[in-house]
Write a structure and sequence with these properties.
homodimer, about 450 residues, alpha/beta, 15 helices, 14 strands
Chain lengths: ~450, ~450
């Protein structure tokens, strides 16, 4: 089943003004859609990080894809890895000050080969699934769950919907800049989608304000709804230990309180010394297999957030699950702003990964239904979970008109890279800089 | 693609009088052949450990198999694990004296669920491959090598061929009870199959004799042919450090010098303290994923010998490769006496496992061509490697007449379990007992 064509389409979708430690989401989030076409005319779909650099990297992999048999994925990886020089290794500094905005997921530091391969692998697995009449989860070893749970992903948010001009979107969740707004956002999102757990993206306001927001969520939803807080490495070790101490009973895990593995290990040691067993989640200093040995050796992380978009595809994250199971680590899934192809890929992966121990992140509720690019329309969450279809491949079909609109939006929106700091300077504070740690 | 039938056939094959730390090989080695049949009449093949207990365990899994879709492997594992109570955890004793003959691979302690599932998974992957017209390696992620290297597996050996009575076989390699015999055996086996590396099964004679055998092999074949020595845990820590010191420059790794993980860690530490960087291989105290964390934490092993027959199948060992790569461990493959179905399963697995860092073990040269049960006949080694076919499934077809002969041989041979110690008492020393450590 030879692959005879690969198409990479950059798109933009409306994205509301969400805040994080790196700044502010722009009115558009950028994605890239990968299509691979077999010699018998079957098309497989993938979706990944967008923007000019991501698209250029995908194009660089074209020669490794075209003419290759769809099942020949081991050698496809070798070809992609050769092109990009293998998986990037993380910067390991003890001071936390070396991390910049580019270090966050969606930035450029993460292993390029793993990201490029991951996007193409999904498209090829969708192609194989469609050709065989089998869902992608079956190609990964078979499902162990029929629906994959996701968590409500709350953000501090400025007023306004996503998009601009003709693309301006309704502000579905409203402003949220303190505990009341965050609780209201959670009620709205859970009311709509039924999520059974909640994550708050922090690192935006002084820690005491974010502690208050978490305690307000606990008050509002009670202990049956697990909570997480993720300041994206914005804190010092002392601050992280302080927040962890304050929230020990309220969080299922504290994600990336500090920016590097050595600092994470210090936070863990400090919490344990205080008698606090609060797992630390990680998707900024554990972003590839090369980070795991040091992570385990130093007990720097207890919950890894995998992401097939940058860990090297669906099979790689299933293998990550085995690694986590073997070494007593929990596993969740990380998310960037995304559409339905990525969501379905996460669902098939989650279905076929026995050791997925937490509900996964998803930005999907923040995207506008009008921007979806699959003919099935908006993917539904039922009780916070995505049902894994029996349909061939990922179970979704490309809506070419919607894709064309997404491309037009990309070409007209004026954004070619994600730069949350620039957006922060434009709309909030002209002198804003990302500082790590800020508190 | 529903599975409507499963057949389990116990067979016996001639096996020469090979010596190891557990005793002496009986004239027959026992295997079991698993066939699964789909509703459209396609048959998939697996081969695994034999004897009455293995067959009974496979039969216990029948209810989890029949009626299941062939791709539904995640839930098949869950069903098998439920039946057998999950993967057994190893006994971890610091004294090394608790390990008995049953602890060796082929014995009964290894995780039963993983063994039963592994055999059935191979048969189902062969079935899927045949149904799709794709080789099994493609179902595992695609090949990264077209031929999988194996090593010459030398044994101290009493005179005589395998089998008995009408099944008595020619003694193709002759007696080997000292360095000269071992070198001659190596020359014959390499001359026949072209192996590029050599493993000697030790733990049979006092360590100084086995050191002499290794040095004779080094003298005969030179440094271009890597050597390994495997006494199956027969030594004390002090002896192991002594042998490791004597052979440091001559071995690519020293396998299972002592019987438990804590003792392995002591050997490693002792060698490093003496400035000797000699990797320790392991397939007796690292026999499942549950052993790996302690192994890594204590640096007890540097080369894991995976085996799809007891690690839980082909996908599991590919995942083991990811674990080993992630934690800086080497990976080879362990073997028991086996026929062509198992050899081809190892070949497909080796082809699709990027992180296979050493030539794999195989007992195959010790089996008689007349006992092979695939219509393709004896699998060939070319330059010590097995070519991975493009044919559907494993690339072999069951020879039903040969299978029937193997079954007759099983039913007539009088052996229903492997018991190398009993054989030792019968033929060598009526008072023989396995002692761990012996030296």
């Amino acid at each position: 089943m030879k692959i005879v064509e690969m198409r990479v389409t950059p798109i933009a979708m409306a994205d509301p003004p969400l805040l994080n430690a790196a700044g502010l989401h722009a009115p558009y989030a950028l994605r890239a859609v990968v299509e691979v076409v077999s010699e018998d005319g079957i098309t497989g779909l993938g979706e990944t990080h967008g923007g000019a650099a991501a698209v250029a990297n995908l194009e660089r992999a074209r020669a490794a894809v075209i003419g290759r048999d769809a099942f020949d994925l081991g050698r496809l990886w070798e070809g992609v890895a050769r092109e990009f020089g293998g998986e990037a290794r993380p910067v390991e500094g003890g001071d936390g000050a070396t991390r910049q905005a580019a270090d966050i997921p969606g930035g450029v530091r993460l292993g390029t080969a793993a990201r490029v391969y991951g996007a193409i692998e999904v498209a090829i697995l969708d192609l194989i699934g469609k050709a065989l009449g089998r869902p992608v989860c079956d190609l990964l070893g078979g499902r162990v769950r029929d629906a994959v749970p996701f968590s409500a992903y709350l953000f501090y948010k400025r007023a306004g919907g996503g998009g601009a001009g003709d693309d301006a979107r309704v502000d579905r969740y409203g402003e949220a800049l303190g505990p009341d707004g965050i609780v209201a956002q959670a009620r709205a999102m859970i009311g709509e989608h039924g999520f059974g757990s909640i994550k708050l993206k922090g690192g935006v306001f002084p820690p005491e304000e974010e502690i208050a927001a978490i305690l307000a969520l606990r008050e509002a939803f009670g202990p049956a709804v697990p909570l997480r807080l993720d300041p994206n490495g914005a804190w010092s070790v002392a601050t992280a230990i302080g927040v962890g101490t304050a929230l020990a009973g309220a969080l299922e895990y504290l994600e990336d309180p500090v920016a590097t593995l050595p600092l994470m290990a210090q936070v863990r040691a400090g919490l344990l010394a205080a008698g606090i067993e609060l797992p630390l989640g990680n998707n900024t200093s554990v972003v590839g297999f090369g980070d795991l040995a040091a992570c385990v050796q130093t007990d720097a992380t207890q919950v890894v957030l995998g992401d097939h978009h940058y860990w090297g595809g669906l099979r790689a994250v299933r293998e990550l699950g085995r690694v986590c199971d073997t070494f007593g680590l929990g596993l969740s899934m990380h998310s960037n702003s995304h559409l339905g192809i990525s969501l379905m890929a996460m669902a098939h992966l989650g279905a076929a990964t026995p050791h997925l121990t937490y509900a996964s992140d998803t930005h999907y509720p923040w995207q506008d239904p009008g921007d979806e690019i699959v003919t099935e329309g908006r993917i539904r969450f039922v009780d916070g979970a995505v049902a894994v279809p029996d349909a061939p491949g990922l179970g979704v079909t490309l809506d070419r008109d919607a894709l064309a609109r997404g491309r037009e939006r990309y070409e007209g929106c004026g954004y070619t890279e994600r730069d949350d700091a620039a957006e922060m300077r434009r709309h909030v504070d002209a002198g804003w800089e990302r500082v790590v740690p800020r508190w």
